[in-house]
Amino acid sequence: MKKNKVKLSDVTTYKFGGTCNSYFEIDSEKQIQEFDFQNIDIDNIFVIGKGSNIVFSDNGYSGTILKPNLDFIEYNKAKSTLKLGSATFLPDIARYSNAHSIADLEWLIGIPGSVGGAVRMNAGAYGYEFSQHIQYVNFFNLEKNKFETQHKDYFNFSYRESENLENCVITSVELNVEEGDPVKIKERISKNLQHRKATQPAAIYNAGSVFKNPKGYSAGYLIENAGLKGHCIGGVKVSEKHANFFVAEKDSKAQSLYDLVKFTKSVIFDKYQIKLEEEIIFLGDFN
């Protein structure tokens, strides 16, 4: 596990951010166990996956970034379980489920994140949440300096949130799965892809949904109804196709996205007295 200096624009889907001088990629659980965390402030460690929900400051990130590369899928048909490495790409799981006739994972096909992020953020779409499939989560506890396995109930999953994962590096997750009709599984994957193509922007530089949906409302509907579709700040704009997606032009700045998010929250609160909460995470210094 080698320490590197990295351009943060290279490790996130928005392609924003300065540099980080303390960046480590992890290729095995053994490397985590052997890593010397004593000289690092564990409270300033951030773990990334595909970087699809993260926005780093244009000034960079002064903490330490860990990127696990634990990418695998292990299916135990007899026990009806699926073990997934934390770096496994969510659409790859949907494709695997299609090939092995595993039902109810089709919704993962259009989510551009990894398993670790899906656990932390309790990713969801089409009425599903990742937590409903989870049986156990395996992780390295940085405070205790040891590996742990906990049942899903330990994490108190709720809408786009989990608990008790601070200072932890997720290594893998075990899902309960069921077999299904291969024809219907294939049809649902195709339908989900078509729906995403029809309703969500194909722009390269975005991070999916910007805001969580407030209880009883769609964030996209509120933003659209407030007349903000197409509103632009410094090369970052509210998508014309889906108002809860903010898309960026090449070489735009993280600060512009931050300013657009702040502006949008202010407009929505003034109009509806509703406080929007970000689904994306801002890291580093912003004005």
UniProtKB/TrEMBL annotation:
Cofactor(s) demanded: FAD
GO MF, one annotated term: FAD binding
Cellular compartments annotated: Cytoplasm
GO process terms (BP): cell division; cell wall organization; peptidoglycan biosynthetic process; regulation of cell shape
E.C. number: 1.3.1.98
Major location (coarse): cytoplasm
Biological or metabolic pathway of the protein: Cell wall biogenesis; peptidoglycan biosynthesis
SUPFAM superfamilies given in the database record: FAD-binding/transporter-associated domain-like, Uridine diphospho-N-Acetylenolpyruvylglucosamine reductase, MurB, C-terminal domain
GO-annotated cellular components: cytosol
Reactions catalysed: UDP-N-acetyl-alpha-D-muramate + NADP(+) = UDP-N-acetyl-3-O-(1-carboxyvinyl)-alpha-D-glucosamine + NADPH + H(+)
Any matching Pfam family: MurB_C
Enzyme active site: 160, 209, 279
InterPro entries, alphabetized: FAD-bd_PCMH, FAD-bd_PCMH-like_sf, FAD-bd_PCMH_sub1, FAD-bd_PCMH_sub2, MurB, MurB_C, MurB_C_sf, Oxid_FAD_bind_N
Gene3D superfamilies documented for this protein: 3.30.465.10, UDP-N-acetylenolpyruvoylglucosamine reductase, C-terminal domain (3.90.78.10), Uridine Diphospho-n-acetylenolpyruvylglucosamine Reductase, domain 2 (3.30.43.10)
Annotated FAD-binding PCMH-type domain residues: 16-180
Assigned protein family: Belongs to the MurB family.
Function statement: Cell wall formation.
Protein name as annotated: UDP-N-acetylenolpyruvoylglucosamine reductase
Source organism per UniProt: Candidatus Actinomarina minuta
Encoding gene, per UniProt annotation: murB
